[in-house]
Design brief:
By secondary structure, the protein is α/β, with parallel strands linked by helices. It has 2 domains: 76 residues, no CATH class; 298 residues, TIM Barrel (Alpha-Beta Barrel), CATH 3.20.20.
């Protein structure tokens, strides 16, 4: 027998259902890990503050069978994790486009992963020449969705490349230049010293010579890339103080401590957004894998995306992933390549590793201009199979 309900009751029911499925999102820390289950269905789990899982406010939708992914080692189903619109950017004045890009990155968690590669000397743009010729031929017809760079020597010729990457439908990922006076304490013979507390105070206090040195160095990146890209309408994933947990950096967070590194990071954030009026940025917090201290100095309100750098003879799970997953932020691996020039580094293994062990990974940046192909400084193999995996999204497939 059919039952008829008053319209008001029906509307209330719809509203209640909507509130249950889509409560206000947040970026609080995750106390329970994201999981993927197969065997007849897919499920997301997470705690009430995680921003992960069906009940906390994200819908989980079966997307594709990992068995269809030739590179995958998992028989589980992956899921599409779709946040409600309105995930907040760290910069409250971020442009609408920048907000959409961040929302898009959240939708990729547990679902797909953006391919990325550092650009140098027009490696990912036509006309191809030199090393890029072999890259284009080996990886054809796909090119990475994210183009990156940052060495100051690259800026003069690569800013147009990044603009072209954006105009072609891709994303842009840039390292922020810096320069410090000597700090205190030895740095394992690397020729510079760790920053002390007094150094950090000087570096972050306007009017000091240390502040001028640091921010003049930042201006090289700002004037050479970030302002032109802003004026072109591009959103940039900006990467300050990468590998901060490594003792090969003079801003080593393990020596500096949590509060001082947080102050150094906040200074960069404020200088870029408030002082320079750059509201087209997503801030990327990127320690190195395998050395601990992954969240020293991390402050959620000043970070949009997290990541890890990882150099090994073959692709593997990246230590530090679980700690960064607990931040609730999208994970974009910042530098990935072989550490052995004689290895046969198999890029086609990455989609399976990500799907089965690191499902919140939304992007992966290959280091240097030729890390996807044999014969370079960081040789790689099977880039075509890697880029053609159903897990990966390449240039032309980014939609936000």
């Amino acid at each position: 027998m059919k039952r008829y309900f008053p319209i008001s009751g029906l509307l209330l029911g719809i509203v209640a259902l909507g509130m249950a499925l889509y409560p206000t999102p947040n970026n609080a820390a995750v106390s329970a890990p994201f999981t993927v289950r197969g065997g007849g269905g897919a499920a997301c789990t997470g705690d009430s503050d995680s921003g992960l899982g069906a009940s906390p406010g994200l819908t989980c939708q079966p997307q594709y069978s990992a068995a269809a992914n030739a590179a995958s080692t998992s028989a589980d189903l992956s899921v599409q994790v779709v946040p409600r619109a309105g995930v907040a950017t760290a910069d409250p004045q971020a442009t609408p486009t920048t907000q959409r890009v961040l929302n898009y990155l959240y939708t990729l968690r547990g679902n797909h992963t953006l391919s990325g590669q550092y650009n140098r000397n027009n490696d990912w743009q036509t006309p191809y020449s030199g090393k890029s010729q072999s890259v284009a031929q080996a990886c054809s017809p796909n090119l990475p969705a994210i183009g990156g760079g940052g060495d100051t020597s690259w800026l003069s010729h690569d800013e147009p490349v990044w603009a072209a990457q954006w105009n072609s439908g891709g994303l842009v990922f840039i390292m922020l230049n810096y320069s410090f006076p000597n700090g205190t304490g030895p740095d394992s013979g690397r020729g510079f010293n760790f920053l002390s507390h007094s150094d950090v105070v000087q570096l972050t206090t306007p009017g000091t010579s240390a502040y001028a040195q640091l921010h003049n160095a930042m201006d090289v990146t700002i004037n050479g890339a970030l302002i032109p890209l802003r004026d072109a309408g591009a959103t940039v994933i900006i990467r300050p103080y990468w590998e901060m947990n490594g003792n090969w950096t003079n801003y080593y967070s393990g020596s500096m401590g949590d509060a001082d590194f947080a102050l150094l990071w906040q200074d960069a954030f404020t200088y870029l957004t408030t002082n320079k009026g750059l509201h087209n940025l997503l801030f990327h917090f990127s320690p190195n894998g395998g050395v601990g201290g992954y969240t020293t100095g991390f402050r959620s309100q000043y970070v949009d995306v997290v990541g890890l750098d990882w150099y090994t003879s073959q692709p593997t799970f990246v230590p530090g992933y679980n700690e960064l997953a607990a931040t609730g932020k999208p994970i974009l691996l910042g530098e990935i390549a072989t550490n052995d020039a004689s290895s046969t580094y198999d890029w086609s293994a990455w989609p399976g590793i990500i799907q089965s062990q690191m499902p919140l990974t939304v992007g992966i940046m290959g280091w240097w201009e030729d890390s996807l192909v044999p014969g370079g400084r960081f040789p790689g193999f099977n880039c075509s199979q890697y880029l053609e995996s159903p897990r990966m999204i390449n240039l032309g497939g980014v939609h936000y």
